[in-house]
Amino acid sequence: MPKGYWIAQNDVHDPETYKKYLAGSAPAFQKYGARFLVRGGRLSALQGNIRSRQVLIEFDSYEQALACYNSPEYQDAAQWRKGAADGDIVIVEGAD
């Protein structure tokens, strides 16, 4: 079964509030077995419109990735993200 991935790109403009999002979202990520493959770090923007913070999260399946995003635990924490960062999140199914 293919894994599921969150691909998130953010521009954080309120780091203190963003820390509340990070702390608040941790229980959802733990509950759904998230594994952070990329979480910030060095970045070389080579083409297109790239945001300053990149995150790649792996889940055991596409369904687990969606369930995490839609969970009450994550949605509660996501309110902090809306006030602290502009960005995009996509959930994709991995290749077999």
Describe this structure in words.
The protein is α+β, with helices and mostly antiparallel strands and 96 residues long. It has one domain (4-93): Alpha-Beta Plaits. The protein has helices spanning 15-31, 62-70, 72-84, and strands at 4-12, 35-39, 53-59, 85-93. The protein has a 4-stranded antiparallel beta sheet. Helix 1 (15-31) runs antiparallel to helix 3 (72-84). It is globular. The N and C termini lie close together (7 Å). 20% of the residues are buried. The mean pLDDT is 95.
Number of strands: 4
The biggest beta sheet reads:
4 strands, antiparallel
CATH class: Alpha Beta
Average pLDDT figure? 95
Count of helical stretches: 3
Across the major sheet, the strand order is 2-3-1-4
pLDDT under 50 segments (min length 5)? none
Beta strand %: 25-35%
Proportion of helical residues = 40-55%
CA distance, first residue to last residue: 7 Å
SS-based class: alpha+beta
Instruction: Please identify, by name, the CATH architecture.
Output: 2-Layer Sandwich
Q: Per CATH, what is the topology?
A: Alpha-Beta Plaits
Q: What coarse outline follows from CA principal-axis ratios?
A: globular
Radius of gyration equals 13 Å
**From N to C, what is the helix and strand string?**
EHEEHHE
**Total number of domains:** 1
Layout of strands and helices, then pairs:
Elements: E1 4-12, H1 15-31, E2 35-39, E3 53-59, H2 62-70, H3 72-84, E4 85-93
Antiparallel strand pairs: 1-3, 1-4, 2-3
Helix pairs in contact: 1-3
Could you write a compact summary of the structure shown?
With 96 residues, this protein is α+β, with helices and mostly antiparallel strands. It has helices at residues 15-31, 62-70, 72-84; strands at residues 4-12, 35-39, 53-59, 85-93. The protein contains three helices and four strands, in the order βαββααβ.
